[in-house]
Amino acid sequence: MPEIRVVPLGAGQDVGRSCILLTIGGKNIMLDCGMHMGFNDERRFPDFSYVTKEGPLTEYIDCVIISHFHLDHCGALPYMSELVGYDGPIYMTQPTKAICPILLEDYRKITVEKKGETNFFTSEQIKLCMKKVVTVNLHQVVRVDDEMEIKAYYAGHVLGAAMFQIRVGQDSVVYTGDYNMTPDRHLGAAWIDQCRPDLLITESTYATTIRDSKRCRERDFLKKVHSCVEKGGKVLIPVFALGRAQELCILLEMYWERMNLKVPIYFTLGLTEKANHYYQLFITWTSQNIKKTFTDRNMFEFKHIKPFDKSYADNPGAMVVFATPGMLHAGQSLQIFRKWAPSENNMVILPGYCVTGTIGHKILNGAKKLEFENKQMVDVKLSVQYMSFSAHADAKGIMQLISQCQPKNVMLVHGEDEKMDFLKQKVQKEFGIECYKPANGETIIIRTEHNVPVPISRTFLKREESSGLPDPKRPKLFHGVLLMTRNNGWKVVSPEEAVREAGLNEHVIRFTSSFNIDCDSSDGAKVLARVQDLLEKNLETSEMQTSDETVSINSVLIQLDSSRSELLVSWSFQDEALGSCIFNLLKQKLSGERAERAERNQRSERRDR
Amino acid sequence: MAVDDSDEWLFSSMNKYEDLYQYELIQPTRTIAFVTPGEIAVGGCLSTGFNELLFLSAPGHLRLTGDEQDLCGERDFFVIKGALTPHGVDHIETGGVGRERTLFVMNEAMADVELWSLANEDSDVIEKLDTMKTGLPEGHTCRCLIHDKLAICGSTGPQALLFDVNSLVQVGSIEWPRPITCAGFVALDGETFATVCQSSGLQIVWDARVGTGSPSLVLEQESTSKGDRFAFAVITPKEQPKIAVISDKGQLTVFDIRQSKAALECVDLGLSEPTKESNLCLQSSSHKPNQVSISGFGHCVLVLDWSTQQQLFKYDGHEEDATPLYHQWYPWKEDMIFSSSSDGSLHAWHAHF
């Protein structure tokens, strides 16, 4: 029985280190290869020993697919391909290929140069890994080999993020990665066609959440920024160079323009130009609004947001600064934070998740004093705000996606280990399909059904069609022969055609049944007329033929044997259903009438006596 | 940079609302039950298909204040538990001694009350426990109040019935002076309760001591407001309780229960007549006894000072073409109101700017 197997190596009842092994039609695919930002040891990488205990993975994995550039989806890729070993193709979109190495290099620098780790991939290994990448365009069918093909769909979430359909023969799986069903200012909403995969593997980050609207979050953010700068305070917004930063920049730019504010907004150099460059390069991946206005004005060239120089941090007066990196764990954002933290007039807004151990995480847990190198203490008196702008589908969005693509089964990944019996129940009730939520290392097996398409002879079809138009909602029984032809093709033909092709004598099987009927030799015509009347009333057919002694429909023949007071009904094997139906109908009606007459006669006799 | 309609909303809302949260439920809800501080229950009210019964954890932002709120960042509801029900949910009551983790669910046009359990720690599905067969007329929605060990149930007819919440057995009844359609029940204290007839505005206050014969009526007051539909709220139930009644003609009347037959205030608010589909809803603030809120007239929720007849605040955040269904003051944060509408929206907002 054909089946699909799925084993999460990461993101099984967990967020982080997304890596899912998929076996479909005999092919093995790795979906994402992320790292877990919460660990500093080997637990940050997926456990590749599930694939093989030792040696490279090349012969065990047919291809790797990366959904987007977030490190929890691609952070382990160079480690897997260069340190564990994999030489096969790695599929991703163009923007993902362009941006991945930048983030990987940035992360490598922090891990190796700042933290002093040794067993980590090098810059050269990142480059070698990226050489194995094959890019895919949206809605383009890419043949991985003779049997497997993949297709990318727009996922929203971040620039270049895609959902992937993987098809091998008749089996198909859709893997969503991270996606967003509501559009952003700079990205559109995820979309997929009614591709009816055997399995939909969907992220479930916010599956048990009912999210506050995006516009209320934006409103809250703008109010806080404005109230701080209005009082002369400075606002620090630590961000990663790509992702939510662009969203917030567009938002602030629009607000500053409308409110005619003169307070300067800065974005730290380094990754800024590259980020804006990529958004302009991949403009087709952005939202409708951005694409629409691009010819008049490039929304990533900001009027109110200027490049930052580190000397500006000491300038008096209000300002807003976007600085990298996002968790205040190093770099410019941390330097600025140390200068501004002691002032109550200032504010830091953290717009995303902060890993344990980072300054961002500490201040979000209420730390009021921080110790840095050389036992330098910094007072945290500025206002600390956490605002989540991450773009994931919530419960309603997940149900929308299921409704769009109409899978036969659903699997939930990339969600915390929360109970999801209710969501599973909803999916089952709403769509009548199974829903799974495996843990890391747990194998889920999905049985699939295959339909074999077979050509059918036109003569045969026309003959079957002539017996009445089929009801598209009900199955229709055909009697035919599956014929394997000399050139190894096959088709369905009528029995007569098959017999002719095979050069055989045709044998016909007929069934005959009879029942007693109350009549004498002069009643023959009356009985047949009664038979005809019953058939006309009870069967939807216009194909009845009558003669003096018989009534026939298709191969069903009804004949009266007056000498034995029997009605014979005979039919061929092909008309088994029709023949049985007619026989039972006539027996019920005519025998019943006979029994009634006999009873009436008996009653009459009793009365006479 | 061009400002589009959604951005226009941003700017106009900043000049209207302090705190604002807007959520979309899969089905609209006609009830918002506050279970414990930070936990609420809602239920879909569609008449076809399956409705979701949801037990939600309120976002940190709505539970916390000050620094804690700023650090929290959490603005989303978390679905603690849920269930699918084939009925449209009309109202949810909670509590009751021995039934602390139970939801009492009243469904549209059904006389019985369903009991759903929140107790199972191993699953996030709300399980149906039992059904309290009230014996009230079929085809009418049951109104029920849970107080201590008692469930008071009424709909249309000459009486309300009293049940023990644990055994679900009837323990008494209250005979009305004439048949009424209950607009709900409110407890004034441990022994005194109030109701209003939804169609005539008749106000009734009674003393319900179980097992001592027919509960005695304390007050029976005809409505001085004109109208065909009425909603009511009780103001300061424990101290100097008053009943506020609003009619579909927009007339608000406030009675002091201790001084019957003397309306404290009766005022025509000049509101446009509600549609037949609108739910007339009147609530009182537990933090500010002079404030009441009204919905059902248009798509807005109005907050008034009933003593001065001054309109204090108007919330118009729900879509104009949606029908307002319900609203309720959030007991654990001053001036916070939750409101729902027929397009599935559930909003939380500050009733002051």
Entry summary:
Chain A contains 16 helices and 30 strands.
Kindly describe this structure.
The complex is a heterodimer of chains A (609) and B (353). Chain A is α/β, with parallel strands linked by helices. In chain A, 32% of the residues lie in helices and 23% in strands. Chain A contains 16 helices and 30 strands. In chain A, the strands form six sheets. A seven-stranded mixed beta sheet of chain A has the order 6-5-4-3-2-1-23. Chain A has a seven-stranded mixed beta sheet with strand order 7-8-9-10-11-21-22, with helices on one face. In chain A, strands 15-14-16-13-17-20 form a six-stranded parallel beta sheet. In chain A, helix 2 packs across helix 4, helix 3 (94-114) packs antiparallel against helix 4 (123-130) and helix 15 packs across helix 16. Chain A is elongated. The mean pLDDT of chain A is 87. Chain B is mainly beta. Helices cover 6% and strands 49% of the residues of chain B. Chain B contains three helices and 27 strands. In chain B, the strands form six sheets. Chain B has a seven-stranded antiparallel beta sheet, with no helix packed on it. In chain B, strands 1-27-26-25 form a four-stranded antiparallel beta sheet, with no helix packed on it. A four-stranded antiparallel beta sheet of chain B has the order 2-3-4-5, with no helix packed on it. In chain B, a hairpin with a 6-residue loop joins strand 21 and strand 22. The model of chain B has no long low-confidence stretch (mean pLDDT 87). The chains are: A alpha/beta (609), B mainly beta (353). At the A-B interface, strand 12, helix 5, helix 6, strand 20 and helix 11 of A face helix 1, strand 1, helix 3 and strand 5 of B. Strand 12 (209-210) of chain A pairs antiparallel with strand 5 (77-85) of chain B, so a sheet runs across the interface.
